[in-house]
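The pair is listed for reference:
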Amino acid sequence: MNYLGFDAYEKSINKIGSYLVFMAKEGDETVIIAQREGTPGEPWFIGKDLGDGKVRASLTHENAETLRKLFPFTAPVRVLRHDRSFGVGDRLGIAVFGHIRLFEEYDAYPVFAQQSIRELNLTNRTFEDVLDTVTFAVFREGFKKGFGADGDHLKTFKDVEYALSLGFSMITLDCSDHIKNDVTEKNTPPLPKHYADKYLDKKFDIGEGISLSFSEGELKTTLAIYGEAINFAANMYTRFLKDGRYKADLEISIDETLAPTTPLQHFFVARELIDAGVSFVTLAPRFCGEFQKGIDYIGDLARFEEEINIHAVIARHFNYKLSIHSGSDKFSVFPSIGRETRGVFHVKTAGTNWLEAMRIVAMTDPDLYREVHTYALSAFSEAVKYYHVTTDLSKIPDVSTLKDEDLPALFDQNNARQLIHITYGLILNKKNADGSFAFKDRLYKLWKNHEAEYAAALIKHIGKHLDLLGVRKSQGIVR
């Protein structure tokens, strides 16, 4: 719309006191237009002085910080406190517009900024960039429902402090480096008396007709596997969150392990953390079966339903939420997750948003997609070092023989999905001999030209996740 002579984004027009701020299109660029009257007394934007108190400002980190100070709805909040929260890791920084439209419709709260250090390294991004991108999108679209920012799967003091210092509203503490995967009952040390007195010869009634008890062997093994991880989490909590200086929630991740977390182990970890004074809002076990990237659940559905019931009861007993990691496209188990958690959960998705972006490429520029796909095949052996997948490359059709209109259907096949899913960093970073990017610039140009199509694809695809989880549509749009 034309507003004060600028091609403004209507939903971005905001007034606060004597301040007027909105976003506008200028050619291929989006800028901030701001005006103030009277004596300056608030943070202000760095940009070109247009006279009459107006400034044209670029989308820089400094200006994002100013937006967050002037308009708190553009800063992350602690959405984990709501019953239903949903992480949508946007590796590309372009998916937020579709995500916003989606979460305006559903009774769930989004974590728009969600990245791990591994993802930052593979995409050459920073936590500053991840959060700023969301801030600008939220302001442009006038989204005032509230969103979270997750320092995802962090393992070190340095990385946790980095995310918290920027205002991230949750930390997912990855305890995997401290979980012992090679433990058997035969190689466990003697059981300390403290734990024997606390757990042996006792029945723990956790409600809903379920009780748990430990044999000495089970207790010794559980302590050997998770004892160090519990101490690590307690130390991290004490160092950063116990005194309340950072307004952020803690999620405990014990899912990045080789073996599933049994209900007994889940109970032990939760009780020990709570007894150590650790306050956490969600906990992510490693469920039975396989939660591989970008494809549906692999495993015994009946066993999963039985165990998710007990995991959910444990979470209710201790008053926190279950967190479902690698939640992208786990359509067959979403109904049981929604049902057994009674609609109280946190689910994380990430790579599926990238896959929908690549589906748009296959739909709109078949030749470019073939180039990317062919390179991904050559890069797969490198990418598989970072992810556990069971991809069979021999089952992926030869893209040189497929018709253009058949390329998008590759994203309905598990092997092709995983091929593109795990090679994203290599694809984005591939360079030509002259140092230019082989694909990145062309891909981003295409996505910018097809922003509406990408948003629609995300609304449909992530919406399917929410529907199957039993998330209801909101009564009205929140702005």
In short: DSSP finds 16 helices and 17 strands in the chain. Residues 357-461 form one domain. Residues 270 and 318 are 8 Å apart (CA to CA).
